[in-house]
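Z., the sequence and structure:
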Amino acid sequence: MFRTSTKAHCARDGAVGALLFAMMLISCPVPATASDFGVLLQPGVAVPLTAPQSERFETGGGQSLKMLFGLNRYLDIGPSASFLYLPSTTAGAEAGVVWGFGGSARLKRPHDAESAYGISPWLDADALFIRTGPLNRFGFAAAAGLAVPIGEARAFWFGPLVRYLHTTQGERAGFDNRDAKLLIVGVSLEVGPGRKTPPEVRVVTKEVVREVVREVPTSTVKCADRDSDGVPDIVDRCPDVAGTQDQYGCPEYKKVVVKRDKLELKEKIQFAWNEAKLEDASLPLLDEVAQALKDNKGFRVQIEGHTSSEGAEDHNQALSERRATAVLDYLEAHGVAKSRLVSKGFSSSVPVDTNATTAGRESNRRVEFVVYFILLNDGSAQ
């Protein structure tokens, strides 16, 4: 049962708690990247569920503080500290005070997921050293909640939670030896470094291209046009190869659309089922991708492999990496310098459609070409 705490007990408990918390922080490893770290503050209302606590104490409140480090995109671990205060049902009697220190593990939906507005359901579990009055005991807690991102940067998360706290009671003479059980309902406030802000993508329409071209002859400022196709470099998506106004200064490829931030494919790259072997039907498409990259020598691209959510995560991650590498190898073999290419697998973490339907899963199995760096010459601006 909970023992009421005197001021001396509170001071002593606070000192012990601070020491334990500092030791946990010192011993906790620092993650490889800042994006793997988060601080959670979780205030809530605490309700005793069983006697004798439900007979001696009223509904109270408290909060938990957690520092979690990501082992991977789905699992976080780290130290936790909790404090609960339960008013006494008897006038003049001392309230119940609970301190808890230990470790926490959280299973979550990855914070970089794009579907469902980025909402991240989570489950966590805590193993705790519990201090109530003069008693030291073991306790554990389990909780479920939702984390909703605030803003595009995803540095702040907010959402509801429900936690069950169970404190064990060994056999002690003169004490009620029943375990203490409480329910805490509250909110979770999380702060972290967030994700990197993507570079601003400027929308250049055909009308903008025509307007710039129309103004060039009468302008007193000379606009650079490296490929002499009549489309100034400031709006030319292919400044090193002659093209047309309707194609934003690019040649008219049959299967590829060149954009400022990516190469958009009009067809899907096909692979053998559950393998990284390219199907022959996709080779003409890749030949045209290679030609577009050779035409645009300033482009460097990241080849991104994506899968549907079927199968084990480790298998999907490895498959997405192998498929992206297979495309990179093909482009290199067909004249594109390897220094301009990088491949990366994303498994099923960045879906473009639902994984609940066959058509949606098929859409999510894909390879994309992202232009992540553009070389600009002659003082031109991107």
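The chain has three domains: 7-191, 199-252, 253-382. The mean pLDDT is 79.

Let me know what you think.
H.
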